[in-house]
Design goal:
Lipoprotein; TIM Barrel; 11 helices; 348 residues; globular; signal; single chain; 26% strand
Length: 348
């Protein structure tokens, strides 16, 4: 029997260790949790949606409770689209979300800010208590401007003092790039909305406005210097841009690939995901005229993988994050599988 020299065995063992180490490093180690938004007015999740919520996000749900808008007739802020609970809440990991229009702070007097914070907290507490919901965080969604930031930030300070809760605020990409001008909201965490970054365009050749890497690149290099810890919101939605005579008529979430693939009504054009109407007709109360164009902007796993890879390069991977997917109420189960969310979140 041929004897293998000791030094050779040592080198072989070392080589094996290096190979195992290299293979292990290929696995993405994520410090991110997952969660979902729910944005509809009535809480009704089916069995499959609850299964996805549990398997992907361990039940963590960001639930929109109500909107705050300005009533021009009454000349005051008021709540709208207050959530209706048609079934018991089946998760204990719930974060209330309140949407506030920027116009509310444009019209609201400075003297009325603290009162609005108190009224908002009272309504939220009542809705939560009725459903026996305990919460430690409250998230606010408001696309504030230079002219409204002082009142919005005062609202947040007042709400925190009254509620004694931890606060989160949604952050748009332009507010990251121009944070010196737009300011940092006085909250505990920000939620970076990594979608709707491009302009809606009637030009068939223009890129997806929900996400495209070119538009994203103009903002994300500023992320390492942003002054708040950030969680990430990623899109699950798609929509169609209705175009007539080169002008945008409307954007519709309910007209998707299934509707546009109906060859009696539409035909594909030379541009990817752009369809032309073959006749005039009504669909779901929407009037479609012959030769109208519908530009389909979709979100799928491939697009979210691209977004996650691009974004993750500019984030501190040692910081714990929550990746919040918008939103589970309209989630297309045929487009996204449980493992898709795990693989996307793993990039962070």
């Amino acid at each position: 029997m041929m004897m293998i020299p000791g030094p050779f065995l040592q080198r072989l063992f070392l080589a094996c260790l290096l190979l195992v180490s290299a293979l292990s490093s290929c696995k993405r180690e994520s410090k991110a949790d997952a969660a979902f938004y729910y944005w509809k007015q009535t809480l009704t999740l089916n069995k499959t949606q609850y299964q996805v919520l549990d398997e992907v996000a361990a039940g963590k749900l960001y639930l929109r409770f109500f909107d705050i808008k300005w009533d021009a007739y009454a000349r005051k802020a008021h709540p709208e689209a207050i959530i209706s609970f048609k079934e018991p809440v089946k998760t204990t990991k719930l974060i209330p979300v309140i949407f506030i229009t920027n116009q509310t702070f444009e019209k609201l007097s400075t003297a009325g800010v603290d009162s609005l914070a108190m009224q908002s907290n009272t309504l939220l507490q009542r809705l939560a208590q009725e459903q026996k919901i305990n919460y430690q965080y409250v998230q606010f969604d408001c696309d504030w401007s230079l002219g409204t930031k002082d009142k919005y930030f005062q609202f947040l300070k007042s709400f925190k003092a009254i509620s004694k809760k931890q606060l989160e605020a949604t952050i748009r990409l332009h507010q990251v790039k121009y944070q010196v001008r737009t300011g940092l909201p006085p909250v505990d965490r920000g939620i970076l909305m990594f979608y709707n970054m491009g302009k809606l365009s009637a030009k068939p050749e223009d890129p997806n406005s929900i996400y495209n890497p070119k538009d994203a690149a103009t903002y994300i290099s500023y992320l390492p210097k942003y002054g708040l810890p950030l969680d990430i919101a990623l899109p699950l939605f798609s929509w169609s841009i209705h175009i007539r005579n080169g002008e945008i008529i409307q954007v519709y979430g309910k007209i998707g690939k299934k509707e546009l693939s109906n060859t009696e009504n539409f035909q594909p054009t030379a541009h990817k995901n752009v369809y032309k109407a073959l006749r005039s007709f009504f669909t779901g109360g929407i009037y479609v005229k012959t030769d109208d164009l519908f530009k389909l902007e979709e979100t799928d796993k491939a697009l979210l993988e691209q977004a996650a890879i691009q974004l993750a390069e500019h984030l501190n991977k040692k910081e714990h994050k929550t990746i919040i997917y918008y939103e589970i109420g309209n989630l297309n189960i045929s487009t996204f599988k449980t493992k898709d969310f795990e693989e996307i979140s793993a990039h962070f």
